[in-house]
Write a structure and sequence with these properties.
about 700 residues, alpha/beta, Serine Threonine Protein Phosphatase 5, Tetratricopeptide repeat, Rossmann fold, 3 domains, 7-stranded parallel sheet, 6-stranded parallel sheet
């Protein structure tokens, strides 16, 4: 049948009486029948015999998209160059040509193409605004990848001035300001107000902005509704998964099983599983990788699948056909996540663990794995998932490779005879409140220095300027270059005390420091991301390094910086307990993890699978974003529940809302007796993820 369609279309194309509409429709029919070579033949024949057609540029563009999707970048690029030559005002060709240059590793030429498009768009109409914002956003993304953050931020602001309702642009803008340490982070402009920015913030950025777990839950729910969306074809039955069998089939979904922070943490977990209890499947959705850690993961599991070549429905079908009973989402709301896939419910049970430090607030994540420090019982109301707990939430690796050579402080610009405070967290975790505390500590410990992980030259200078403005000499803020992990771990020995950030604290970096015998001082708040480090120091046997107030944090840092014997005792304590402490007991963690999996499956078979509670989170979002979180540190508010109650009461007077179970607990002061989540069989309605696409789709 498709052969006849192609033959007829080719004859009409050569006779020059085959319209562009018919061409696109026929190409789509052939594509749906997997006749990809026939699609290429049809387009090339039509182009060959219709060189003077007024819509030639659009046809060249569509053909280039087909070739680009097939990985044939050089011929796709040539077609786009022809399209521009045929019609210099055809903006989509510039945008996709820049995208191809970027994919080929030439970001400079990519920005040139997008700039050329911007220069041509003088007219103001709906179509030109769409093209212009796309060109600005593409340029910003390429510049961000190249660490040209200032220019990227300028592009995003121009784009949002044209259309302030671009959630992706808002998310990137706030994330850029965080990683540049630009305070305030949420900075409105003439056409982009604070409400728009706060409604558009990503859950990951929200975790670094404020220690406000109820607001973070509301933001995650809002993000899931708008940026993840509602899927088509979500499953509500799993025939192979529900067939009685042992061991339990666990699927780990991750983009980070490679040289990545999550990869380092998971190094031992997959290989330590008891195969009589658990059959391990992995689904890798990250960039192509050939590093040793990636190879290690491949050899540590029973079944390895790279799903980058599969669309979400195909990947979900693969998981269902393999009978996955519990899918562990190791990404959450992080880069390269496949939440469209997760929303299709490819397994009857879905778990949120390790990748994202907080609640997913989705309709399809049934459980979150934590520990009793990160989520105490009285804080369960801030999570949509049912909370299950390990002895310590975070796994670690006892096989870290460390450079054997002894390093010298002078080689890193550090003083030999002074206190060295360090923090190797990413710059996006450093907010004004944290940095001010660090400067207070330096002021009270003469000669001490602050050793930070280096960022771009602009960010480094911004932090030094800020310090100088508060009376701390610029040279007392020292930056460490980014190096490979064995070298990075070795230089920890040069530091005296690790100072944690808040509200988004150290996770992998804290494990690294504690493994290397460096004490970590942390300030725990209420939210997930702000309590992980406190969990780690407790599990490492040095719970005394967990502070509960800003004043205690500063005073304790000064005390340790002024008394070397106290630091020596802490270092000795870490060294003595490293091989026996809970933090690095991976066999115990995996054993307990398998116990949680058995509990989940038992609850599913018993018909009591937890169903996430998402009611009234729109009200919480509306109330929560009214606060200027750059000016007020929620973590320092003593009566957090009362503070929220007052604000909700004011909202209730203006526009009444019915209290759901969560807000009833909050309002009645019952947060200290958190009731377990309601349970019933899985809902049929699920959500799916919106993906940021770099290319325009074919014209139709």
């Amino acid at each position: 049948m498709t052969t006849d369609i192609l033959k007829s279309a080719l004859i009409s194309s050569m006779a020059r009486n085959f319209s562009v509409t018919d061409l696109i429709r026929t190409a789509e029919t052939l594509k749906q029948s997997a006749q990809h070579s026939s699609v290429a033949t049809l387009y090339s024949t039509w182009i060959q015999h219709n060189q003077d057609h007024p819509l030639l540029s659009a046809v060249l563009f569509n053909y280039s998209v087909i070739l680009s999707d097939a990985g044939q970048l050089d011929p796709a690029r040539a077609l786009l160059e022809r399209a521009i030559a045929s019609n210099p005002e055809f903006m989509p060709a510039y945008i996709n040509l820049g995208r191809i240059y970027e994919r080929q590793g030439n970001a400079g030429l990519a920005v040139v193409q997008w700039s050329a498009a911007l220069a041509k768009m003088a007219g103001v109409n709906g179509q030109s605004i769409t093209y212009k914002t796309t060109a600005l956003n593409q340029s910003a993304r390429a510049l961000e990848t190249a660490n040209e953050d200032e220019s990227a931020e300028t592009m995003l602001r121009q784009s949002l001035e044209l259309d302030c309702h671009q959630r992706e642009a808002v998310q990137h803008l706030i994330a850029l300001r965080q990683r540049q340490c630009k305070w305030p982070v949420v900075l409105p402009s003439d056409r982009v107000d604070t409400t728009t920015l706060m409604q558009g913030i990503s859950p990951l950025s929200a975790a670094a902005l404020s220690d406000d777990p109820l607001l973070q839950l509301a933001i995650a729910c809002h993000y899931n509704k708008l940026d993840v969306g509602v899927p088509v074809g979500a499953r509500d039955s799993w025939s192979k998964a529900t067939q009685t069998s042992q061991p339990i089939r666990i699927g780990y979904l991750s983009s980070d099983l490679r040289e990545h922070a999550v990869g380092y943490l998971m190094t031992e977990v997959l290989g330590l599983h008891d195969r009589s209890k658990v059959e391990v499947f992995t689904y890798y959705c990250g960039p192509e990788s050939h590093d040793p850690l990636h190879s290690h993961f491949k050899s540590s599991v029973d079944h390895w699948s790279s799903i980058n070549h599969l669309d979400d429905n195909s990947a979900a079908r693969l998981m269902a056909e393999q009978g996955i009973q519990i899918l562990v989402d190791l990404n959450g709301y992080t880069r390269e996540a496949r939440l469209k896939l997760v929303a299709l419910r490819p397994a009857p049970i879905i778990v949120n663990w390790l990748g994202f430090p907080g609640s997913m607030a989705s309709p399809y994540h049934n459980y979150i794995i934590a520990d009793d420090f990160i989520i105490p019982p009285d804080c369960e109301i801030y999570y949509s998932e049912k909370v299950l707990r390990l002895p310590c939430y975070q796994p670690s690796s006892r096989t870290r490779a460390v450079l054997p050579q002894k390093l010298c402080r002078k080689d890193f610009g550090l003083p030999d005879d002074a206190m060295v405070y360090c923090c190797f967290n990413g710059a996006h975790k450093i907010n004004r409140f944290t940095f001010d505390r660090w400067l207070m500590i330096l002021a009270r410990v003469p000669g001490s220095v602050l050793w930070l992980l280096g960022s771009t030259p602009g960010v480094n200078e911004r932090l030094r300027d800020y310090a100088a403005g508060r009376g701390i000499a610029r040279e007392r803020v020292v930056f460490a270059d980014k190096v490979i992990n064995p070298h990075h771990l070795a230089r920890y020995a040069l530091a005296d005390l690790f100072l944690d950030t808040t509200p988004y604290g150290a996770h992998t970096t804290a494990s690294d420091a504690l493994w290397m015998g460096v004490p970590v001082l942390t300030l725990s708040g209420r939210s997930f991301a702000s309590r992980v480090c406190g969990s780690l120091v407790r599990a490492a046997g040095v719970a005394e390094l967990n502070c509960t107030s800003a004043e205690q944090y500063v005073d304790r840092a000064v005390e340790l910086g002024s008394n070397s014997s106290l630091l020596d005792a802490l270092r000795e304590k870490l060294r003595a307990s490293r091989d026996t402490c809970t933090l690095f007991d991976m066999p115990l963690l995996v054993q307990k993890l398998e116990g949680l999996y058995r509990q989940m499956w038992h609850e599913y078979e018993s018909g009591v699978l937890p169903q996430p509670s998402l009611a009234n989170l729109d009200v919480c979002l509306e109330v929560g974003i009214q606060l200027n979180h750059d000016d007020i540190e929620v973590q320092t508010i003593d009566d957090y529940v009362g503070w929220w109650n007052d604000r909700l009461a004011k909202r209730q007077k203006v526009r009444p809302f019915e209290l759901d179970r969560r807000l009833a607990q909050l309002s009645n002061g019952l947060n200290a007796i958190a009731t377990p989540p309601e349970v019933h069989v899985p809902s049929r309605q699920q959500n799916s993820q919106k993906v940021l696409e770099g290319n325009y789709h074919p014209l139709s």
